[in-house]
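User: I'm putting together notes for a lab meeting next week and I want to include a structural view of one of the chains we've been expressing. I don't have a solved structure, so I'd like a prediction I can at least talk through. The sequence is below, exactly as it appears in our construct file.
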Amino acid sequence: MAKLAINGGKKLIPPGAIKNWPPIDDIDRKMVMASLEGGQHAFGPDCKAFQEEFAAYTGNKFAIFTNSGTAALHMCVVAAGISAGDQVIVTSYSWSSSATCILHHNAIPVFVDINFETMNIDEDKIEAAITPKTKAIIAVNLHGLTCNYDKLRAIAKKHKLVIIEDSCQAHGAKFKGVNAGKLGDCAAFSFNQNKCLCSGEGGMFVTDNEEMAKKAAQLWSFGETATPLESRDYHSYALGWMYRGASLPAAFGRAQLTKMNSYFNTIQENAAVLTDKIKDIKGLIIPVQPEGYLHNWYNYTSRIDMKAIGWTGAPTAMRDAIMGALQAEGAPVGIWQRFILPDMTVFKAKNAYGGGCPWSCPFADKLGEKVNYCREDFPVAQRHCDTHFGMTVPLRAPNTTASAALVGEAFLKVFDNLNELKVKA
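Assistant: Thanks for the context. Below is the predicted structure for the 425-residue chain, given as structure tokens.
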């Protein structure tokens, strides 16, 4: 193939060929302007309607619109009855909020290594991490592929654990025909601009359990027992935050939700074209969709098989060189997360609130002090972290299969010319 763009060759993907996400049309303009002119800009009618519509989309009885997926995760922790000194199992590779939400309620995250193929928690390693203080599992459906909920439910039933579903990236994904958001006891979604359903910023807590919904709502609104849609006495009955969403982002989210099925079909078509284009590239490990799973391809994340390409140096050096070459060709790839969670200072320092809390909290007892975060205990997550890169926008509307094919050509060009790369060892 032609000379790589990073070395002065012609850029394969021309500027403007990859369109931005999300597409904005008259549906968005009409609904957002109606909210703007409606005069109720805090938690108003659009928020209530968004809750109802999203609950129907996922198949849940209860939904609470909040200001972020992180807030929704904290609400899940509270809904699950987790308190000071309790332990919660979570994957060792995700966004920080998947685990800091545990700290938010003075509980202790216990990390488990990942399954390299799925990039999700290795369900077969969970039981070894369970202690008498374990109260829940946060199952992160990373990059739009769900965990194996058959295995998770069996573990949860055996050990009497709550399953919290982190579906912040999993809108529209399914496991054995069941929607993300309906797979655990409660779930959190994010509507950040990067997500497959966007409201700019925002999130949603969902559940079928009325008691869990009440606990989550209390945390969500100042510890009060009545929501802004009810008659409030403005009395805080428990520790609470201000996690409510606002009308303008709710209106935007509602508008985008009307197009969600079309968006989902587009990303499925584009992902299929890209996968077919690059599936035989030597040294490239592409994401999987196991039988019984429906991926939403939120982040099309690939890894590099260093052994297959004959690289024996630092894996991050080669990964960065390949990623830089792809970017030079116009493929908008990037690193989603450079650190495994146990290697982040917020956990390693074991001092979230000062005084060693929550690990040295009296309610944590000796089991809390024994929880350690050593990078070497999570070799699969570290291998993934050092060899991955991903992309979100190219597979989404308004981009087409032609756009996906063009990105695939950039992959072929770069991997056909790896010998041209100048790797910074």
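A couple of points you could mention at the meeting. The first strand starts at residue 62 and ends at 66. The first helix runs from residue 26 to 38.

User: Perfect, that's what I needed.
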